[in-house]
Amino acid sequence: MADHPSGNRSEGEPREEWRTRWGFLFAAVGSAVGLGNMWRFSYLAAEKGGAGFVALYLLFTILLGLPVMLAELTIGRGARRGPISALAHYGGQGWRWLGAIFVAAGFLILSYYGVIGGWTLRYAVEAATIGFAPDAGAHFGDVASGFDSLGTQILFMIITIAVVSGGIGAGIERLARIAMPGLFLIMIGIALYAATLEGASDGYAYYLNFDLEKALAIDVVVAAAGQAFFSLSLGMGAILTFASYLPRDSDVARETAVISFADFGVAFVAGLMVFPLIFALGMQGEISGGTIGALFVALPKAFESMGGAGRIVGGAFFVALVVGALTSAISLLEVIVSAAMDAFGWERRRAALVGGVAVTLAGVWPAFRIDILDLADSVATNLFLVGGGLGIAIFVGWVMDDPIAEASVGSARSGVHTVWRILLRYVVPITLIFILWNSLPETWAKIVGVFGSG
To answer: Where in the sequence is the domain holding 393, given as residue range(s)?
Structure first.
């Protein structure tokens, strides 16, 4: 083990801890659950082989998601520091750059995620007060850019900063223990309601069709692998940072399985919620591959057509989106806050305020231009997250001294840990390099589209 990096925080200084195991699990699942779960997974499943895609997704969750998540949990719990200091703790000062990539990824993602979170907040409030606009497309154009977008982004970030300022137990855990069970109940309730609508069966058939030939196409395999990795909030230090507040005797292998499959469950139920609604209301011709278009145009149009019931169901749906967006945003800001506390010795409130304000200022550009938001999303997910996941796999698989011993603290050492390190050494890096290579053309095309080839 490398010497602990020098800094303003001493090795023996007490660190906050989660008050309960369930508090940590709810917060970690909340970090993973976001807008991608609420729409992107179900759309990809429907368009790329249905049940075949779901099977591929589960396979890649086991081969990619679980190993990288266990790696992040192991490093975070062992080092009890944020990403930069944690990587230096186990690998020496030369590995601080990987932790810095995690912090940069969290900063970039939150800069535009706060904008989308503001949209969800506005739609939830409007559903409860004035209902959904008759012209959903025009209304989204007003909501999604300019000072309206900036205003809701600022409000969403104020809430995020306030929760993170409250600390791990009194802030993040307290919110997660209320918000995440509420999210699960709302989603199940809407899914059960959707099942009663005439035409719901067509939505299920669209969502869960089984097309093996389509599912085995190379682009579908890449999409399934990417979704399994992205949906778990890996490669950006959020899970690592949350793990740094775990007690030493926590069973990180068990927590890895619970978080991963809970995240999948939310994504799967989201499809059972969304597609029956869309098909029952005849909106299937208006959905598209874009998360934004479906969530903020097609679905509000569907809810508006339902009258009074639509306000209730739609309001509940957008409350669920707010919860998913907020819990993810909190975990992203915590990455920045933890790193600042480690590096500068700041107290939590100062780190949350400075970090939150900096992120909010960085989000002004995507708040005014949706193409910048889309580009930032592509760069973050296709480059930063994959690159971060690749780095952590190589670090734990090849650099870290006896990671199996660290991972097995709190549980019995077993053959599972041996398989885990083999996956990190060979399967995960090869697959992530493959994903990275295949995603470069899409990312470059968006860069050219925004800034031009010159």
So the answer is: 32-451
Q: Which residue type does 423 have?
A: L
Q: Are 27 and 39 in contact (CB under 8 A)?
A: no
Q: Is 130 domain-assigned?
A: yes
Residue pLDDT, tens place only, 328-381: 999 999 999 999 999 999 999 999 999 999 999 999 999 999 999 989 988 998
Burial code (b: 16+ CB inside 10 Å, e: under 16) for 30-48 equals bbbbbbbbbbbbbbbbbbb
For tokens 């020098």, name the residue: 6
Count structural domains, the chain. 1
CATH number of domain containing 290: 1.10.4160
C-alpha 208 chain-centroid distance:
23
Is 337 within the bounds of a domain? yes
- SS3 label, residue 216: coil
Angle formed by the axes of helices 428-451 and 218-230, nearest 10°? 90
Q: Which residues pair with 210 in a beta bridge?
A: 50
How far is the CA of 248 from the CAs of 85, 122, 251, 254, 407, in angstroms? 18, 41, 9, 14, 11
In a domain, 280, yes or no: yes
Q: What is the pTM of this model?
A: 0.92
Report if residue 19 sits inside a domain. no
Determine contact, residues 72/391, Cβ cutoff 8 Å: no
